[in-house]
Write a structure and sequence with these properties.
The protein has helices spanning 15-37, 94-108, 119-125, 141-147, 174-185, 188-198, 222-234, 241-247, 252-263, 267-285, 290-296, 302-313, 317-324, 326-332; strands at residues 2-7, 44-50, 57-58, 63-64, 68-69, 78-81, 112-115, 133-134, 152-153, 159-162, 165-168. It has 333 residues and is of the alpha/beta class. The protein has two domains: 2-209, 3-Layer(aba) Sandwich (Rossmann fold); 222-332, Homeodomain-like (Arc Repressor Mutant, subunit A). The protein has a seven-stranded mixed beta sheet with strand order 5-2-1-6-7-11-10, with helices on both faces. The longest helix has 23 residues, at 15-37. It is globular, with a radius of gyration of 23 Å.
Amino acid sequence: MKHLSILVPDEQTNMSTIACIVGAYQVFSEANNYLLSKGEKAIYHIDLVGANKTDFLNNNLLSVKHQSAINEIDKTNLVIIPASLIRSYETATKNNKLLINWLAKQYKQGAEIASICAGSFMLASTGLLAGKICSTHWAMAETFRELFPDVNLQTDKLITDENGIYTNGGAYSFLHLLMYLVEKFYDRQTAIYCSKYFQIDLDRQLQAEFSIFNGHKKHNDDAILAAQKFIEENYQDKISIEKLSSDLSIGRRNFDRRFIKATGLTPLDYLQRVKIEAAKKMFETTRKTVNEIMYEVGYNDPKAFRDVFSRVTGLSALDYKSRYYKEAKLSAI
């Protein structure tokens, strides 16, 4: 039988940490039970693993006691890292540094690792994500990029899978990652059973529709901050990036380079994100049609608007409005 380790950090935790631990334990336990009910063998022995035997997770409301300490686990096959408040190796507590070092050791010995939400920060602190793709909660993207610039962060993706490392977006989207892992390490039929049992959608791959674009302003380039401010205040108008860079006395090529360095986006991509975020808010709160909103955010070409909206959110404009505008839902009943 294979060994599954669900990490239990005892410090730098929150309620999401507990939810991830309990959710992962319950889903994999049910996957094992499903196989046993068919007369087959369970795939994983599931272990809640902590840094040592004495400390356990206790947030004054709920507590989780682990079953094993890392020095008792010589080899594991799969490790699940729950969401946590750890942001880097330097800021990790003593026990969490022990967990980070153990993670790196287990991966080198052949274990596969899955991080949930902000658990990606603990995973990135091992150095194992360098040069690899990764997802995390969209609200933490800017901080993550600042701390781990060598990681290819893709917050539009709900799940990433590369070289035995799996990551997912934020909050309770970890349930979709668990379905993905059950299908990968058990089989499709077990994943379908678990999805029905826990009532979780299968095959969801994007978190783009849930993200809120707030710009990327944790940088010290005053000229680019001024450009961002101008774009956000004038996105409805026809903005010339060439003129904007000229007004700031920066050559276009240099402007693009500095803008990408500061925000992670080209000026045009940034403008499009601002327009689409404004459109999303209108879809959520008004009865206006797709074309009316398209014109209000500065698009004149319906196909261009629909293509960009779909690329940024993962949904068509009409589907987004149908999903998030309450009155539209009621009228469809």
